[in-house]
Amino acid sequence: MATALNQTAEAPTAEELIERARAMIPTLRQRARQTTLNGDVPAETVAEMKEAGFFRVLQPKRYGGYEMHPNVFFDIQKQLAEGCMSTGWIYGVLGCHPYELALFPPQAAEDVWGSDQDMLISSTYQPVGKVEKVEGGFYLSGRWGFSSGSTHCGWVLLGAINFDTNGGPPDMRTFLLPRSDYKVIPGTWDVFGLQGTGSFDIEVERVFVPEHRTHRAVDGFLCENPGQAAHDAPLYRLPWAQLFIRSVSTSSFGGARAAIKAGIEIMNSRVSSNTGKASKADPALHAALARAIAEISEMEQAHRAAFNELMDYAERNEAVPMDRRALFAFQSSNVVRRMVDLVDDIVKLLGGRAVYMSSAIIQPWLDLNAARAHVANDPANRTSDVLGTMAGEAPSFTFV
């Protein structure tokens, strides 16, 4: 049976995986411009990430995965994003889906990985689909935007709300569909940043989705998922949303570091043709670079500490207090906007050298600005949850 594949192969260490990602930075940097122009990460890059084992970090061991600490996953993402933020972005999104699939009823994982443990899944959680409840499952139809990395995937996760709940509250679910049941619509990703993520629209024309290929948002929120009986490692007791929201903010660490390094390179060689002043003697630029380096380090330490704490709760089989979940979600929502501000302060001090698209600082700057548009990267969606949970109230937003 296919589920036995790769079970005996020795998994790489966390250090080996992170070093493999770091070694890819020069290659990703060389491909970054073409990735942007093509509007998609090259298939060659995705194949190399598969070969390196990156997509297996959060995948269940039953299907050849490594079940590693989430900080390993995020460390890999940061390295990849330093070479190309679009590549880091799709790794974060596609790489966290093996985790969510482990939360589905067990048959769903067998459907996807039973014959191919390298199979990738894209997503778009916009709750825009039309759902019809029928015996044994649902009919689903609609059109969704923002499915990053969709051309590289054979399955997709789609958000939609089931209103047919016998008088109960609406039921937000994620629906899992094979490639034969949906279309990836090319030409629907024309943006100023993160162009290479290939975040195309997905179209579905009334297809049947069996019950076992659905996952209820409330189960992920309560950490009471049907897949946990089959995949019982502490990892899968984490709140699903804590992983997902970080998957769309963590690539900004790599993007910001790329921008800082580019800023230092420009600083070391730039002399204003108008004033004759050398940028390397500019105290304001020095201060902007130093502040960016320091604040990124602080955010990274907070990120790492959050997942160490989350895993401590999971290993003790204890529920994560709601005020901690709300705080971690709020911290994540602020990361990208803080990165944008830090890099903005650097760019505006580099004069005309930072205007050209050939300048190494411009693409990460554009990517960071695009990344902040994601709903999970808007701190306005989190403020009331932080204050409310401190007062003992339930959060208003289930993605915590």
Order of helices and strands: HHHHHHEEEEEEEHHHHHHH
Identify low-pLDDT runs.
Answer: 1-8
How many structural domains does the protein architecture include?
A: 3
* Main sheet properties: 7 strands, mixed
CATH topological fold name of the largest domain: Butyryl-CoA Dehydrogenase, subunit A, domain 3
- Please tally the helical runs, counting DSSP H or I stretches of 4 or more residues: 13
Q: Write down the overall geometry.
A: globular
Number of strands: 7
Strand content: 5-15%
The CATH class name of the largest domain reads Mainly Alpha
| Straight-line N-to-C gap | 37 Å
Arrangement of strands in the largest sheet: 5-6-2-1-3-4-7
Average predicted confidence as pLDDT: 94
CA gyration radius, whole angstroms: 21 Å
Structure commentary:
This protein has 400 residues and is of the alpha+beta class. It folds into 3 domains: 2-118, Acyl-CoA dehydrogenase/oxidase, N-terminal domain (Butyryl-Coa Dehydrogenase, subunit A, domain 1, Orthogonal Bundle), CATH 1.10.540.10; 121-222, Beta Barrel (Butyryl-CoA Dehydrogenase, subunit A, domain 2); 240-390, Butyryl-CoA Dehydrogenase, subunit A, domain 3 (Up-down Bundle). The chain has helices at residues 14-23, 25-38, 43-52, 70-83, 85-103, 106-113, 217-222, 240-247, 251-269, 283-315, 322-347, 362-371, 383-390, and strands at residues 121-134, 137-147, 155-162, 171-178, 183-185, 200-210, 214-216. A 7-stranded mixed β-sheet has the order 5-6-2-1-3-4-7. A hairpin with an 8-residue loop joins strand 3 and strand 4. Helix 4 runs antiparallel to helix 5 (85-103). It is globular and about 75 Å long. The chain starts with 13 loop residues before the first helix and ends in a 10-residue tail after the last helix.
